[in-house]
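The data layer described in this paper is built around a simple, fixed record for each protein. We quote a single record here, exactly as it is kept in our systems:
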Amino acid sequence: MRKLAPILLLAAISLRAQGPENVLVVVNDYSAVSKSIGEYYALRRRIPLQNICHINVATEETISRAQYDEMAFRIRAYLGSNHLRDQILYIVTTSGVPLRVSGKVGLDGDAASVDSELTLLYQAGSHPINGSIRNPFFGKKDAAFEHPAFPIYLVTRLTGYSFDDVKAIVDRALLAKNRGKFVVDLRSSSDEPGNDWLRSAALALPKERVIFDESDTVLYHLTDVIGYASWGSNDPHRKQRSLGFQWLPGAIATEFVSTNARTFSQPPSSWNIGSWNDNPKTMFFDSPQTLTADYLHDGATGASGSVDEPYLHLNPRPDFLLPAYYRGRNLAESYYLAIPALSWMTVVVGDPLCSLGKP
């Protein structure tokens, strides 16, 4: 019994390290919806009042680097003055907090998502803004996420087309259970890296829990979906904006798409996805591609996307994401295990504490 006590103590510490006290919620007081989301999430997850950081910044989705630096300074100062730097593991931004830092796009560019930049606030001083920075947590399947071993924050966003969409995301996260099917849909039977990662994801999950397709057929109208990975609108056979899935509470999605988090403004119901060569009518916010927010609006609890071109090798890896989530990692840790680079284009939407629990 004496030998077991330290193990039980470590287990208790590990569990305590993934609670509401480890979440910082960022609320933009210039945005009514940001304040409403912050209040609702804090109430539902019992986030301590001290863990709610109020800022006053522009509500536009795109801001300049100077505006971002001012916002980041305020959040870092709040963490320091409230002695939260090490206690906080997860930062949650909300609708109304800017989405994108403007700049040059490309592997050596300085454009990025706001959330991906905020992951680096734990580190003292500034970091290079051109290009991406290696994510130290990427691929660390067996490591506990803690400070200072991993000197970053895991940043997720509570957003959608409306406050009702966000409320539903939070409510579904609290109902998550480890059941349902993981849907893995390749765009062809070729051996390009993205397809290899999708195959590996399917092989890493229990066979009876996987729906796997590597034909030209796009999977629509499936039920009991708890996880989804595909090429999205980069599959030339995908013609419908909505998959028509019945998503279970806690369901997550990821896809290899360059601009799916370009905006969280809602398109008209008549809009449909297309290709870059299609009629200009298929463009919405300068892109014809799928939108992350559609998955959330249709019933998913979490999803990833990119504010601009991330390049395939820097997209979230489904072969890390889906197995980690299935095995009981929370949403934030599952996604960031799968994200190769920070100070980059990725946005993760969802409650960081959402977990399916152990299988």
